[in-house]
Please model this.
Amino acid sequence: MAVPKRKTSKARRDKRRTHARLDRPTINLCPQCRSVKQPHRVCTVCGTYKGREVISFEE
Model:
């Protein structure tokens, strides 16, 4: 059975985990209505994507 010869130090352990973190989601402003939205997604407020209406909301 494989058993480590020495204890893994905290520095070595943490170096291995540098990429294992949560990043904040990127937030952009919609060019049409200036509301907050994620990039490359349809705006949930006005329903536009790349300057054209994709979803029409019934009022």
User: Anything to note?
Assistant: The longest strand covers residues 28-29. The chain has a mean pLDDT of 92. Strands lie at 28-29, 36-37, 48-49, 52-53. Residues 28 and 37 are 5 Å apart (CA to CA).
